[in-house]
Amino acid sequence: MTGSTPAPVAPATARGTRPPMPNAGRAWTVLGLGVAAQTAGTLFVSTPAFLIPLLHAERGMSLAEAGVLAAAPTLGMVLTLIAWGWLADRVGERIVIAGGLALTALAAAGAIAADGLIPSLGYGPLGILLLLGGAASASTNSASGRIVVGWFPKDRRGLAMGIRQMSQPLGVTAAAVTVPSVAAASGISAALLISLVATGVLAVACTIGLRNPPRTVAPTPVPTETTPNPVAARPRNPYRGDGFLWRIHAVSILLVVPQFTLTTFALVWLVTDQGWNALAAGVLVGVAQFVGAIGRIGVGVLSDRVGSRVRPLRWVAVSAVVVMLLLAGVGLLQWPVAVAVALVVASAVTVADNGLAFTSVAEMAGPAWAGRALGAQNTGQFIAASVVGPAVGALIGLVGYPLAFLAVAVLPALAIPIIPSEVAEHDHL
């Protein structure tokens, strides 16, 4: 099969109106399955981060050591994102997503078995199984974004990609409200069982209900006097000629550090530094992630309305600097209400850039390169994210949470001048 071709954008029939979307029912059904699939994968990847309080307080691991274990699934994703994107370009999204989730379920089952070996073999086998599960779950990241490009026209992709990008905070929310209490009551194996059930069920559901986007097979060019070389008809490499995609990748790497800092350490910050109990802290983190999920939709709709992905991306980068500084300040004051409000706002802001950057990458890469470009986009982000656990954990151990949050605020500040201009964006469209 060939790569998916985005649905054409039909002209508006009247000022301020949009024509009906072809295959709308199928498109929204497939999007829903894609969201659920990536949510299940994110639940698995996020679970170790919410085991940190147990590992740190009850089992004596340092924050840096627990951060390494929490980063294992993310590191696994880094190793396979581009490969999954390449496979999606070749064979389609349905096989990639369903197969990847099935492999993630197998890894979760293996991790449950490895938990029983901790007294004799330590945490090494568990870390390896978490890494393999993360590698398998990366299939949903690369392929589900491709579904949006294939099924939705350009003037609805911001909304659709915003909904698709809800997957990550929804997965984190599910982990936040279930894993800490389940792990505290029944141990690591019980917490991992949640991921096993979720990924197994979604693997079956995607096998049955997922459909690849409409595909257009381009005819093989016949050599003539004017087009003597069929290779010339191949889609151009979007990474050659200018640095637009490279700049978006770099911006996303910088902006993902505040996001994963909060995802990884918000719960343990509330429990060990702010004096919250684990249940209340988990509920707050879950609420914060859910608000972030809704915010991604709002930012996606905004990008559709202003006709640009990079303009709202710049607004988000500026806001990320502000909210990390705010979080550092309220952490020093230790006012519970202020801490709760600041964490919800910061969590919402720091996840808002993902959908914008993801949509921009998919549009600029084109249908023939979308899978690989989205894989590269996520690879850069997750390389940075895999460093967050041990690096920020060590930094917190040295200087404490407020100064660590201040240091993290520097990265979105560095991202602001790298964001491409709207003129460069429209030159590509």
TrEMBL record:
It comes from the Bacteria. It is a multi-pass membrane protein. It holds the Pfam family MFS_1. The chain crosses the membrane at residues 28-54, 66-88, 95-114, 192-210, 244-272, 278-303, 315-333, 339-361, 382-404. PROSITE patterns: MFS. It is found in: Cell membrane. Its main location: membrane. Residues 27-427 form the Major facilitator superfamily (MFS) profile domain. Residues 1-23 are annotated as: Disordered. The keyword Transmembrane applies. Keywords: Membrane, Transmembrane, Transmembrane helix. This is Sugar phosphate permease. It comes from Plantibacter elymi.
